[in-house]
Every structure is written in C-alpha cells, then in structure tokens.
Design brief:
Number of strands: 0
Structural class: mainly alpha
Distance between the termini: 71 Å
Strand content: under 5%
Number of domains: 1
Radius of gyration: 19 Å
Length: 98
C-alpha cells in the first residue's frame, strides 16, 4: 500500500474515534445536569405538586442511564435533554403556584 492510503486510513480512524467520543462527553454532561434539575424538583416537592412533570423527568432519566450503559450516547443525550425539559417545566409550574 502506498503512503497516501495509510495516511488516509489513519486520519479516518482518528476522526471516527474523535467524533464518537464527543457524544460520550456531552451525554455525561447532560445526564449530570438532568440529575441536578431532578434533585431540585424533588427538593421543592415536585412529587406532590407536579406529578406528571416529575414522573416524566424520572422516566427520561432512567432511559438516559439505560442507553448510556448500552453505549448509545447519542440517544442518552437526547433522553437527558428531555428529562431536563420536564424538570424545568415542573420547576416553572411550582414557581407559578407560589
């Protein structure tokens, strides 16, 4: 094989590994943010005051952890974003009630 072919495969391998790692780190970051928002929602009584939003946030976070363990970081990131949205909606509803 020529040198150009080896360089091409080396560069291709580098970019493949780089881009797959991006989802790992962003999924981890989104999951931690979702866990924090869910903890805030629970601390403010979200289980009783906004049960739909609370249960949605919990379920999305469970789905996030499942996908994360299976190595599907893109789906994990999406579920974590949904969990954050549900928790934020619950926190907004609690603020309206106060």
């Amino acid at each position: 094989m020529s040198k150009k072919v080896w360089v091409f495969f080396l560069v291709l391998g580098f970019f493949s590994l780089s881009f797959s790692g991006c989802y790992y780190f962003s999924a981890t970051k989104e999951m931690k943010a979702a866990e924090k928002l869910l903890a805030d929602l629970k601390a403010q009584g979200g289980e009783k005051l906004v049960p739909y939003e609370y249960c949605s946030a919990v379920q999305f976070l469970e789905d996030t952890k499942l996908e994360y363990r299976e190595g599907d970081y893109k789906s994990a990131k999406e579920f974590a974003s949904r969990s954050q949205s549900a928790a934020q909606a619950g926190l907004a509803e609690i603020q309206k009630k106060k």
